[in-house]
Design the sequence.
């Protein structure tokens, strides 16, 4: 179990979206919600209100996930392509595109060199695509644009 | 591709990508799964280290060293018989199995698992992988690729089953 970053409710540990408030758990929070002010978020572990920039919860010490973009939100094509080419083995382009699960998969299998190969291919595909093709096929972070 | 981007925008975007990646570099898990990590005190910070990978990487090194020590010319020079190729291939095939079984048990049941077990099975997995690297690239044993493909397909199937459940 974990706490929603927006409303603090208990949600499933693998939930991408809070069933209570509907907020994507990896998105950047905008504005306040209920007791949470605009520059705060809820700790995913203990539910305490912490600074939105906090990397560690001061109450329980648990590391907080970086709040980036939600999957499919505006990601820069060139940034995604360069991250894929240079740090694809670490899944950096997936984390950038809001696909935390896929990024973790790349990290966990880094030692096989397969993520690096996938990153190289994805980086080339992303950089040679025209903007519309990028938005349609690659912006959501699916592997090889599938 | 859009050309109205400035260098500063590009650097800012790359920095954003790095910031999104950095929290997971050693933990390999979201905070809700940090029980699968070791919590190490580094200065005044707590660093999470994936328990499985804490065994995999040293295991790979051990596997490569073991291959080097087990290479026929090395053992022959030391006066010991070389391990048959079949034994070496069997080790490559069998050593990763405990890690796969342990991961499957914790992914599909309510078992929380134990981090020392994750590390130990990760070390065996890494050793098998390191041995396999030696068998493939030095001894030219392409059967290692078949073993790797089998485990890869099995892993993909299990991941798909887990995500679908």
Sequence:
């Amino acid at each position: 179990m974990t706490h929603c970053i927006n409303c603090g409710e208990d949600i499933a540990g693998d939930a991408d979206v809070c069933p209570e408030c509907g907020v994507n758990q990896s998105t950047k929070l905008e504005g306040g919600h209920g007791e949470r002010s605009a520059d705060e978020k809820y700790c995913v572990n203990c539910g305490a209100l912490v600074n939105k920039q906090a990397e560690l919860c001061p109450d329980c010490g648990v590391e907080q996930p970086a709040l980036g973009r939600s999957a499919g939100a505006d990601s820069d094509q060139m940034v995604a392509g360069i991250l894929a080419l240079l740090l694809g083995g670490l899944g950096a382009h997936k984390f950038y595109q809001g696909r935390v699960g896929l990024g973790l998969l790349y990290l966990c299998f880094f030692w096989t060199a397969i993520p690096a190969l996938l990153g190289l291919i994805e980086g080339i595909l992303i950089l040679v695509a025209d903007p519309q093709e990028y938005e349609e096929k690659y912006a959501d972070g699916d592997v090889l644009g599938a | 591709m859009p050309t109205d981007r400035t260098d500063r925008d590009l650097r800012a975007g790359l920095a954003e990508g790095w910031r999104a990646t950095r929290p997971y570099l050693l933990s390999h898990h979201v905070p809700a799964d940090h029980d699968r990590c070791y919590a190490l005190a580094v200065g005044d910070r707590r660093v999470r280290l994936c328990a499985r990978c804490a065994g995999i990487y040293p295991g790979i090194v051990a596997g490569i060293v073991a291959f080097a020590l087990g290479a026929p010319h090395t053992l022959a020079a030391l006066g010991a018989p070389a391990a048959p190729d079949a034994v070496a291939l069997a080790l490559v095939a069998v050593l990763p199995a405990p890690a796969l079984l342990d991961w499957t048990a914790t992914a599909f049941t309510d078992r929380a698992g134990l981090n020392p077990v994750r590390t130990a099975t990760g070390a065996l997995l890494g050793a098998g992988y390191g041995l396999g690297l030696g068998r493939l690239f030095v001894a030219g044993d392409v059967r290692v690729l078949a073993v790797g493909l089998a485990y890869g397909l099995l892993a993909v199937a299990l991941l798909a089953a887990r995500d679908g459940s």
